[in-house]
Amino acid sequence: MAISVEDTINIISQLHLKQNFEIIPIEDALNRVCAQNIYATSSLPKFNNSAMDGYAILYENKDEELEVIDTVFAGDNNNTLLKNNCCVKIMTGARVPNNTTAIIPKEDTHKLNDKKIKIIKNVKKFQHIRYIGEDIKEDELLIKIGENINFSKITLLSSQGISHIKVYKKPKIVVFSSGEELKLHYEKIQDHQIYNSNTPTLIARAKELGCDVRFIGQAKDSVDAIKELIENSLDADMIITSGGVSVGDADFTKEAFNELEFETIFDGIIIKPGKPTVFGKIGDTLILNLPGNPLASAMIFEMFGKLIIQKLLGSNEIYPNYIETNISQDFKNKAGRITLLPGFFDGESFNVCQKRSPGMVSTLSNCNSMIALNENVDFLKENAKVKVLPINWKFFTEIKKDFLTNE
Ligand SMILES: Nc1nc2c(c(=O)[nH]1)N[C@H]1C(S)=C(S)[C@@H](COP(=O)(O)OP(=O)(O)OC[C@H]3O[C@@H](n4cnc5c(N)ncnc54)[C@H](O)[C@@H]3O)O[C@H]1N2
Ligand code: MOO
């Protein structure tokens, strides 16, 4: 029996999955999920240092003529201390003499002779000193188990001299479709046949999301042919199929799975499109049977398949997040089931895509997000509030926009 969207999300979020790990160099860790808590090995800055090229002084000497007694460069291991009415010439990043109470930028001084300077601007106590630990404190938690390693985590790791980390293994995913009418894009087709666009789509998306994806061809519409593909894939963490889940005479996918001790987790989701989605497992391999209709399969994958993958990746971010905005036009909806609507969020409002029948293939290439309307919504007035679920974000546009915040 079909279950609610709420139950679907709860079931997925509560899946207990075996999580294997490996230790890899940080250069290879981009887009992987961290499998250990990582703590700072040392404070940053490691020592008080100068934020400017200039002079280290004692604040109380700011109005005096100062004698330059030493020069310190970044990387010098210098222990000079400041004396009364003296200063030390210092470069950005260099360790400041221990008793320094202000740094004076070079341009705020006047050179009296080779050995003497005078400060010509106001000075604030402790200005331009970068203090030990103000960025990172030794032993501070830097990266938590379940966090994604992106470029900014690479910053943290490399700044700490951490060369290797423990990450979860990439989930192994197998994708195939069934349907006698389908041929793969590199095959010749006849007039009564169509190209299988779901398999390459799902392979691409699962790869984008950080999975190790295997292509094993395509099943003919016979129980035995589908069984062969399934049996060949039971070492994977998840098998994703599309098509053959409905009630048609040639829908053998369900039958094939059932002959292989398929345990149903749910059979149908009360949602539009994509109701005939089946989820289950054979042993430890999860099985997601998506509907054949291309848009339905892609949207269900975006809504729920992605959550399953977040779980398989070991991520601690497993719930959909949204951006609130307004709908750009009045919108009429057939109430009854939660409805997924693909569209385009242009940064100011959400525009529902007009071409969006479940069987279409072109829709998502013109979309960057979707909204989910509750089952009782039959009308949304222009400017009504909506919650946008991003599909794929690099948030750029073809039109140059003014992105500056004023006031
Ligand atoms: N009598 C009923 N008929 C249908 C129902 C229903 O409830 N009662 N549900 C409809 C809905 S909704 C959907 S969704 C589809 C689901 O059908 P299947 O998952 O069994 O998919 P197929 O019948 O195999 O194919 C549907 C459609 O999609 C095309 N397709 C399939 N696989 C691919 C692929 N890999 N790449 C591109 N296109 C694909 C296929 O040619 C069909 O046009 O059932 C409805 N019918
Ligand atoms: O629900 Mo079907 O999944 O509309 O195309």
Automatic annotation (TrEMBL):
The keyword S-adenosyl-L-methionine does not apply. Its cofactor is Mg(2+). It catalyses: adenylyl-molybdopterin + molybdate = Mo-molybdopterin + AMP + H(+). Keywords: Magnesium, Metal-binding, Molybdenum, Molybdenum cofactor biosynthesis, Transferase. The keyword Transport does not apply. SMART domains: MoCF_biosynth. Belongs to the MoeA family. This is Molybdopterin molybdenumtransferase.
